[in-house]
Design brief:
It is built from five helices and four strands, in the order H-H-H-H-H-E-E-E-E. It is of the alpha+beta class. Helix 2 packs antiparallel against helix 3 (52-59) and helix 3 (52-59) crosses helix 5.
Length: 136
């Protein structure tokens, strides 16, 4: 069975409307919070550049990758499908909370009446923050 949750995570995270130039949310934060915002910005960039392999290799947590593998889903294929399902590729990190090796990032995707707010959970693995879960 495919992991709808993971595909949904990526689709929601990169979905939205509008074609304006993306805002770099990492500039809104400093220190460790900027490091937490970085993979969200990298997801947006990878989606715009259609680099699914980058998302799988660098941006998703080991736990999330293991879930994909358990369910027999090829990560690059799932990510490409998420890119295809996205209306737009615009993300903004609005707020970050860090607790030890876990963090939450409140993100906004889309614009105007299509604006949607979600929360991404990130995990620090080997000193690098990786996307671990989406809470809507």
């Amino acid at each position: 069975m495919r992991t709808i949750a993971i595909i949904s995570l990526l689709t929601v995270a990169i979905a939205g409307c509008g074609g304006a130039a993306p805002r770099d949310s990492t500039q809104e934060f400093s220190g460790e919070k900027a490091k937490v915002a970085a993979p969200v910005e990298a997801l947006e960039t990878a989606a715009r550049d259609r680099k699914a392999a980058t998302v799988c290799a660098r941006l998703l947590s080991d736990r999330l990758l293991a879930q994909l593998k358990e369910q027999g889903t090829n990560c690059p294929t799932a990510v490409k499908e998420a890119f295809d399902d996205a209306d737009s590729l615009d993300l903004t990190v609005d707020d970050i909370t860090i607790t030890g090796n876990k963090a939450t990032a409140k993100i906004t995707s889309g614009r105007g009446s299509d604006k949607k707010t979600d929360t991404l959970e990130l995990a620090r693995e080997g000193g690098t923050w990786k996307i671990d879960l989406l809470r809507t």
